[in-house]
Specification:
This protein has 271 residues and is mainly α. 53% of the residues lie in helices and 12% in strands.
Length: 271
């Protein structure tokens, strides 16, 4: 019971998890953890990481357990407070936890400002020194921002079509900082077939492949009358109810009266 109370204190701020190193620092041996697991109080998630059997879990428990195992002696709260200087979720694992793209992360991808190695095949470390602004918290873990994740995948995968899917999904989550993304892509431009430091060219190509560049959007609007009418209705709605607005609406009505999609514009205008 004393061990369970101690473990409850440790797991309360770590998604119900504890490492064997943390437990040992509080007098709970590996044998004690093994016995608590056999008794059904704990569940072994990964090498040296256990979870309270009564704690709610989710799809990212494996990633959290792997992250805890990278510095097993430190508490999550302490590490998160110094997240830019520690182990950060990157690459395909970052795209997974951001829920962007359709990449299949077959291992846990972490970056660290110091060189690390692991004998566990399910964990990969890469050496990266990150700007604090390029690290955010997602599902309780320190993770590369959307922009940094996109650049990291360009560097790691090299296949722009795969990264374009990630970029498209990311753009649907929030407005991306394109200036920062250009900066992050600049060192990768030459290896991708662009001029040295041409992050803008590389970004434009990614946007084009993703189908979210200006030209692609214009083609979609032109090819889809209903979509075009929605855009027109939105623009007109922002103009208010002035005489000028009414004149614009009259002109559009005259030009498009023969189209069935005009009904969509009329309903939008009525709203």
């Amino acid at each position: 019971m004393d061990a369970l109370r101690m473990l409850a204190e440790l797991t309360s701020h770590q998604w119900g998890m504890v490492t064997s190193a943390q437990a040992s620092m509080h007098g709970i041996t590996r044998l004690g953890l093994s016995r608590l697991t056999e008794a059904g109080h704990l569940v072994r998630l990964a090498h040296g990481v256990y979870m309270d059997a009564g704690a709610p879990g989710d799809e990212f428990d494996d990633l959290r357990a792997a992250w805890l195992s990278t510095e097993p002696g430190r508490l999550a709260e302490e590490r998160i407070g110094d997240r830019a200087n520690g182990v950060v979720v990157g690459g395909e694992s970052a795209s997974r936890i951001h829920r962007i793209g359709d990449l299949q992360a077959h291992r846990h991808d972490f970056v660290s400002p110091v060189r690390r190695q692991s004998q566990r095949h399910e964990i990969r470390y890469r050496l990266r020194v990150l700007d604090p602004g390029d690290v955010t918290l997602v599902e309780g873990l320190p993770v590369m921002t959307l922009e940094r994740t996109i650049a990291d995948l360009v560097e790691d995968l090299g296949e722009l079509s795969l990264v374009a899917d990630v970029l498209r999904d990311a753009s649907r989550k929030r407005i991306l900082d394109l200036d920062r993304l250009r900066q992050l892509l600049a060192p990768l431009a030459e290896r991708s077939g662009f001029g040295k430091g041409d992050g803008g060219g590389l970004l434009d190509r990614l946007l084009e492949v993703a189908g979210i560049d200006v030209a692609s959007l214009a083609r979609r609007i032109a090819a889809d009358p209903a979509l075009g009418f929605r855009v027109a209705a939105d623009v007109i709605g922002r103009m208010g109810t002035s005489d000028e607005t009414q004149e614009v609406l009259k002109t559009i009505s005259e030009q498009l009266a023969s189209s069935n999609a005009m009904q969509e514009l009329s309903r939008s205008w009525a709203r």
